[in-house]
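Record 1 of the preview.
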Amino acid sequence: MKKIIIIAAALAGFTLNANAQNASATATQNVSLTLSNAISITFAGTGTSTGAAVNLPFSTVSDYANGVTSTAQQLIVQSNLAFGVSVKSNAANFTYTGTYTTGTTMPVSGVLKIIVPANATGGTIASPFSAATYASVTSTAQNLINNGTYGANQTFSVQYKATPGFTYPAGTYTTQVIYTATQQ
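->
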């Protein structure tokens, strides 16, 4: 009988434990992300939208005869959509600083040229530009990269070549080259 009472007491305890439940409550909350289209273009060398000055010194007859090239200048595009990049100069002519007063109007087009030696944007280099042949920079925007792929570090490089010939007097000739990244 003692065994029956112990067994009955154990069963009653299991039954009580099975019916006892922990109290709980839940709370929910919606979280929404509101994304805007975003794009930036910067120079790798400076980390800003203003690149370091590119100086092309002409100091020998060979420089005048063959032109002078720069080192490659890398740009980085960050965009959440596909994009294109255009290029232009800020004016049709270089700005002159020097002692001569005549013969100092040098056009940008035909004198300043670029190639795109590296393109890791996922897009294509737009004609007339290429990775092998220099093409003139003009004061009218020209497509440089088409259909770049969205991403955080889409890079390409440009290299400048100046070929003024023997037509212009000594001095400093300056222009700004403007790269514009536009979402497509």
